[in-house]
Specification:
The protein is 25% helix and 36% strand. With 162 residues, it is an alpha+beta fold. It folds into 2 domains: 1-31; 50-159, Pleckstrin-homology domain (PH domain)/Phosphotyrosine-binding domain (PTB) (PH-domain like), CATH 2.30.29.30. A 7-stranded antiparallel β-sheet has the order 4-3-2-1-9-8-5, covered by helices on one side. A two-stranded antiparallel ribbon has the order 6-7. It comes from Lentzea aerocolonigenes (Lechevalieria aerocolonigenes). Pfam families: bPH_11.
Length: 162
Amino acid sequence: MTRVLLVLAVFLFFALCVYGMWHGWKRRQVKQADLPAFPATPATLGEAKLATTGVYIGTTNAGNWQDRIQVGDIGHRAEATLSLVPEGVAIERVGATPIFIPAGSIRDARTDRGLAGKVMFNEEGLLVVQWENEGHLFDTGFRGDDKNVYDEWVVALVGGKA
């Protein structure tokens, strides 16, 4: 009988944890409901100046590396292709909607160690693009398969202002 009660207690604790995570996710979605809509990807894009594959890590409110944006499927990590096109930065995600950052919205680009709850061992493990949308600053992170291209991306995004 003690074993059955212990198993039930563990199950109840697990269910409570899952409920807490779900409730926190929903609360964050409600809190972020007033954020401006993300820009739509233009119907046609120019030829890519740079492209790399990797994982879209997430988008956060700028300056708060753990405040992941949860509106829609923006918060979902996914394998992706990052492309720098004349119109801006296009992120084609596998199994999720694409993300587009207009060239005129880009404010900064850098390499970083962590974003959206993802922390890398290497100081330059992530490529982070800071951009503005209707007066709100966002940081969007990408972990590339080849991290040797990050410097080229930073120069292209900041130096050339996309």
